[in-house]
Amino acid sequence: MMRLDILNGGYGPGTKLLFALIRLFSGHPVPDAAKLTFYRPDFYGARAKEFTHEAMRGPSSWSIGDRELMAAYVSKVNESAFCVGAHTATASQAYQDGPRVAAVLADLESAPVEEPLRATLRMLGKLTAEGELKAEDMRAVLSAGVSPQQVVDALAVCAAFNTTSRLADAFGFELLSPEGYDAGAKYLLKRGYR
């Protein structure tokens, strides 16, 4: 893991002013995930924000809480502390049920969630850990009552957060305080990922 100095200061004056205003009004520093999207937006940031926003807030029969829980679960499988913290807080606020989110992350099989969501999380966990799925994995998800479109939507979340959690660890994103994660969650729930 390497911490890139560019995340601390490699921005133009307009972006630096924006970061200062965010810190002033929120009382929290801009998270490294946001900083990364502002650095070289033409190469990574603009596309990443668009894809992630569509996966997390676009039309889907999965709720926002479900998709945030998927992001937290994929991040947990990747052992990405920054992303687990960020998306645990966001899923907890979206559901208004922190204990439910904590239960899923502690033990998916005994957690109080509906079987379609459990089967989907199981599939995303396997794909994240092993890098592939087999036909029987898809049959198991579909037989649990998950629609083909829900599978596509869940795979989009998985792709977004396999990328983000790996970048978080590769660049050494700084962990936030619980209050910082909560503030970020409020922002994500209000404005999404754009």
Automatic annotation (TrEMBL):
Tree of life domain: Bacteria
Protein name: Peroxidase-related enzyme
Organism field: Actinopolymorpha pittospori
Record key words, sorted: Oxidoreductase, Peroxidase
Xref: PANTHER family: CARBOXYMUCONOLACTONE DECARBOXYLASE-LIKE DOMAIN-CONTAINING PROTEIN, SI:CH211-175M2.5
GO MF, any single term: peroxidase activity
Gene3D superfamilies: AhpD-like
Cited InterPro entries: AhpD-like
